[in-house]
Amino acid sequence: MAAAGVLENARRPGFRETLGRMSAAQKPGRGAPPYSRWINRRMGRVIAAAAFTVGATPNAVTGVSALFTASAIAIIALVSPVWWLGLLVAALLVLGYAFDAADGQLARVRGGGSRAGEWLDHMVDVTKTCLLHIAVLVSLARFGGAPGEAFLLVPLGYLTVSVVLFFGMMLVDQLRRSVAESVAAQPRSGSGLLQTLVALPTDYGIVCLAFVLFGWRDAFLVAYTLLFAAHTLVLLAVLAKWWRELRALDARSAAARKA
Prior knowledge:
This protein is mainly alpha-helical. The protein has a single domain (2-258), classed as CDP-alcohol phosphotransferase transmembrane (TM) domain (Four Helix Bundle (Hemerythrin (Met), subunit A)). It is 75% helix and 0% strand. The protein has helices at residues 2-9, 15-23, 34-54, 58-78, 85-109, 115-143, 153-178, 193-198, 204-210, 217-258. Mean pLDDT is 87; it is low at 1-9.
């Protein structure tokens, strides 16, 4: 984003000016899950504009995101559930996610991110995904509430599905980039609204909001299990989609080499 990079080299604008320029220069939201697309990115934009105004770095914003999320995860694992606990956990997770959306936007408004910063962001993302479900498992083992021992497999399954989906997205993105120069990208049309709605169960923001119910054990476990089941179905569907897409890219690459 070359135009945005001028902000870093010229007079540092105020919050409102920065926010206005960022709002006019957002990356496409096509296909992103609904909470992430329509709520979290907007929250992140406000945080990024404020961070730019005070001269904060993207890595510092990533650190704040990790601090909020780690605090929520520690509370889940260490504190016996009561009615108000879910409100606190959900608030911390939502704030952590908003700062997670802000670091990339801040990097772009400063003229572009770095490989080290992108690596740090992804490492924090996958770590929080793992630890969040581990914390749920620890809470159930320590404080009870599960309908039986077999239910402890649900957090383990949710952890597995989440990590496989995260790794798959990262790998597919890298494979797409590896052929971007030699094979023309297929044009995408529309707003991706259907894809956005289908991706709802995989939306980390929805998972964050589900923790509002954490103090009401039965309600939380129902919501958590439903999200896990839906997340699994989406993963199975997207694995098939990625396989077909990569096979098509292989065919186009082979045709380009023969031409």
